[in-house]
Amino acid sequence: MKIPMNELAAHAGELMERAGVPEPAARRVAETLVSADARNIHSHGVIRLARYIDCIRSGGIRPDAELKIIDEGPAFLRVSANGGLGIPASCETVERLIAKSAAMPLAAASVSHSDHYGAAGYYAMKCAEAGLIGFSMSNTCPLIAVTGAAAAGIGNNPFAYAAPAGKYCAVLFDICMSVVASGKIMLAAADNRPIPEGWILDKHGKPTTDPQAIYDGAIMLPLGGHKGYGLALMVEMLSGVLAGAGTLSGVNSWNTVPGRDADTGHFFMTVNPAFFGGLDNFTARMEKVIEELTSAPRLDGVEKIYYPGELEFISERRAQTEGIELPEGSVSELERAEKLVGA
Amino acid sequence: MKIPMNELAAHAGELMERAGVPEPAARRVAETLVSADARNIHSHGVIRLARYIDCIRSGGIRPDAELKIIDEGPAFLRVSANGGLGIPASCETVERLIAKSAAMPLAAASVSHSDHYGAAGYYAMKCAEAGLIGFSMSNTCPLIAVTGAAAAGIGNNPFAYAAPAGKYCAVLFDICMSVVASGKIMLAAADNRPIPEGWILDKHGKPTTDPQAIYDGAIMLPLGGHKGYGLALMVEMLSGVLAGAGTLSGVNSWNTVPGRDADTGHFFMTVNPAFFGGLDNFTARMEKVIEELTSAPRLDGVEKIYYPGELEFISERRAQTEGIELPEGSVSELERAEKLVGA
After folding, report:
1. Residues of chain B with pLDDT under 50
2. For chain B, which has fewer Cβ within 10 Å, the N-terminal or C-terminal residue?
C-alpha cells in the first residue's frame, strides 16, 4: 500500500509529538525521515522512529532540548544539541549555516552533544537547493576495525556532499566508510549465501565469509582498506575532535543502549560558487560534466550510467506523485512506535 | 648509495634551472619532489624531473609562467598557473592561502590552467605545519571507469588532508581514487602474478586478472565501486568545475603527450581550529584519538597499528639524518634529466 508523503510525514510528526517532542522539532524529524524513505533509503526513514522513542523513554535523548550556540561569527557556528535529537538540531544548524553562507566563500558549523542525525545527504541537499556546495558528516560509535586491528575502533562515519547541477537537479553523494552496509550482509544471511572475504571480521577479529556473524558481534572493515580508515578519521576529526563532541569509544551506540547519552558530533560545510566564477557558470559546467560521465561506453549488461544521486531523485519524484511503499521492516517499526505512544 | 636531502634538492633545482625554470620556482619544484622521496613516495619524487623537462622542451609547459590572480578576498583566492609547472604555482598559492587563513575559520584557493602538482599531501602538510587542517586535491586526465562504464571517464583525482597532532606531528592522508596505484600492478606483471578481479579492466572494458594489461591500455577501477566514483567526482567538482580548469577529457595527460597544455586544476582548503575551541585543545584531542586508534587489539601477525602519515614521518626522519636511497627507476630518470639539460 502506498502512502502519500504528506500523510506519512503528518503521522510521523504526530508520533514524535506524543513522545514529548515539541514543534517544530517533531515536524523536522518527520520531514527528514520521510525524505529518506522517498529517496528509497529506507534504512534512514521512518523505521527509526520507534528507536528514537525508546531512547527518549529511557532518558538517553532529551525530547525538548534546545540548541545552544557556543560561538559564532560571520562564517562559522559552533553549537551543542544539548543531548537532544540529532535531526532537529542539525536542521536548525544547517538553516543558520545557509543564512551565513550567502555572503561568504566558505562557512562551517559544528554540532556537539547530539545523536543520530538521519541521512547525511539530507543536509547536504538543503545546501545545494540554496545554490551552495554542501558537505555533511557525522561520527558514530566504533563499528569499523582500522587497518591492522582486530576490533571495532572507529565509526562507519557517514559523509555526504551535494551540489547544484542545473537541469540535473543536483549531484548527491552519501556514503559510510565500511565496505558494505550491514543491511547487505543481513540479506546474504537470509539467503544463506556466503559473503566475500574482506567485508567483515567475526567477533574474535578473524576474517569470515559467514554472513550470520553480523548477528554475533561482527566487525565491519573499511572500504578500500587504509583509504577508508583515513576517510573515517577525517570525519572523526571534523565532527568529533573539532566539534568538541565524543570521539571513538566516547560516542555511545544509539542501537544497543537506549538509555545512554550518545554525544555524537556533526560537521557541516558550504562552498559558495558565487565567489568562484558564479553559480550559473558552475551549474552549466556541472551539466557538461554529468553529460560526459553518463554518456561513456557501457559495460555489457549495463543499460545506463547514473550520476551520484540520480537514482534517489528518480525515487523521490515517483514518491511525490505516487506516494511511498514502505518495506515490511519499516511498517513493523512504525507499528511499534504507534504502540509505544498509544497512537 | 644514500644522498643527503639538501644535496639532492640542490641538484634537482639546478636541473630545473638549466631547463629554463627561474628561481624561486626551480627550488620549489626540487624541495617538493625531494620531500616525496624522503617520505618514501618515490612515484612523486625526483623521478618526475625528466618528464617535466620533456614537457617544457615540447612546449606543453611554460617554464617561466607567473601566477595570475583572477580574484581574491579575505577568505578565498582564485588563480591561474598560466600554463606553467603545477608545483611552483601550488606552493605560491598555498603560501598565500595560509597567510589568509590565520584570521579566518575557513579559507580556500583554486588553481586553473596548471599541470602535475606532485604529491597532494605536500600542500596539506604545509597547512598542518601552520596549525591548520589542510585539504589538497587535483584532477587528472581520465584514468578510471565510473560505475557501469567500459572506458576511462574520470581522473584518479588525488585527495589529501593533514592536521596538526601535537607530539605525533600530524595526521597526513593522501590517496588517489583507484583501487590500487598502477605501480602495484606493474610489480605483479614483473612477478608474473595474476591480479585480483576488480582492480582494472582491459582496453576493451572487459574485467581482467592479467597484470600485463597495465601496459596495454588498462582502465583503472574506482576504490569501493560507486564510492570511489563519487569521491573522484567531488575532487573534479572542486578542482576542475569550480576552479575553472579543464574537466574530465578536457584535462590532457601529462604522460602520453608532452607537447599538450594539461589545463589541470587544483583546490586547497583550510579549517582553522583557533575558531573551533582553540589549537591546543584540538591537538590534545587529536593525540587522544591517535592513542586510542593505535592501541586497539591487533590482527594475528600485525606488529603495530599506524596512524595515517606515521610511516611517511618515520621515513622522513630517517632521510633527514641518513639521506635518501633512490630506487633504480628514480636514478635512471634522474640520469635522463641530466642528459636532457646537459648536466
Report:
1. none
2. N
Measured CA distances, A64 to A70, A192, A260, B108, B132 (Å):
18, 44, 17, 38, 36
Chain B stretch 216-255, residues whose beta carbon is closer than 8 A to a beta carbon of chain A: 223-224, 226-231, 233-234, 236-238, 240-244, 247-249
Mean pLDDT computed over every residue of chain A = 95
Q: At what angle do helices A25-38 and A49-57 cross, to 10 degrees?
A: 150
* pTM above threshold 0.95: yes
B204 touches chain A (CB under 8 A): no
| Measured distance CA(A81)–CA(A62) in Å, rounded | 10
pLDDT of residue A10: 98
Q: How confident is the model at residue A258 (pLDDT cuts 50, 70, 90)?
A: confident
pLDDT of residue B1: 85
Question: Tens digits of per-residue pLDDT, A182-237?
Answer: 878 888 888 889 999 899 999 998 999 999 998 898 999 999 999 999 999 999 99
Q: How far is CA B221 from the centre of its chain?
A: 19
What is the sign, positive or negative, of the torsion defined by CA atoms of A22, A23, A24, A28?
positive
Ramachandran bin of B278, using left for φ above 0, alpha for ψ from -120 to 50, beta for the remaining angles:
left
Answer yes or no: is pLDDT of A255 > 70: no
- What's residue B190's pLDDT? 83
**Enclosing H/E stretch for A79:** strand A76-80
pLDDT at B183: 77
Alpha helices in chain B (DSSP H): 5-18, 25-38, 49-57, 86-101, 120-129, 182-191, 226-236, 279-294, 310-322, 328-341
Query: What is the C-alpha to C-alpha distance for residues B177 and B194, in angstroms, rounded to an integer?
Result: 22
Q: What's the CA gap between A81 and A261, in Å, rounded?
A: 11
Is A190 exposed, middle or buried (CB count within 10 Å of its CB: 0-12, 13-18, 19+)? exposed
Domains of chain A: 179-221 (3.30.60.50)
**What does the alpha-carbon distance between residue A243 and residue A29 come to, in Å, rounded to a whole number?**
22
Are residues A148 and B298, on separate chains, in Cβ contact within 8 Å? yes
Q: Which residues pair with B188 in a beta bridge?
A: none
Taking alpha carbons only, the member of A340, A249, A273 closest to residue A50 is: A340
Q: Do B297 and A173 touch (CB under 8 A)?
A: no
* pLDDT (0 to 100) of residue B158: 97
* Pairwise CB contact (< 8 Å): B292 & A248: yes
Catalytic residues of B: 116
Contact by Cβ (8 Å): A164, A283:
yes
Contact A101, A107 (CB under 8 A): yes
Whether the Cβ atoms of residue A326 and residue B273 lie closer than 8 Å to each other: no
Could you give the count of Cα atoms lying within 13 Å of B86 in the half-sphere of its Cβ?
A: 35
Cα B304 from Cα B194, distance rounded (Å): 29
